[in-house]
Amino acid sequence: MLDKNPKLLARLPAPLLSIGSHQLAGRGRGSNVWLSPAGCLMMSLTLRVSLTEFPASKLVFVQYLFALAVAEACRTQNILGGKEGQKVRLKWPNDLYVATGPSKMDLRKIGGVLVSTNFFAGKVDIVIGCGINILNPPPITSLVQLQPESRKTLSMERSAAAIMAKFEEMWTAFVRGGGSFAPFVDLYLQRWLHSDQLVTLTTTKPPTAVRITGITLDHGLLRTLPERAGMPRHSTGDDDYIDLQPDGNSFDLMANLIKTKA
Question: Domain BPL/LPL catalytic, which positions (predicted)?
Answer without folding.
Answer: 1-175
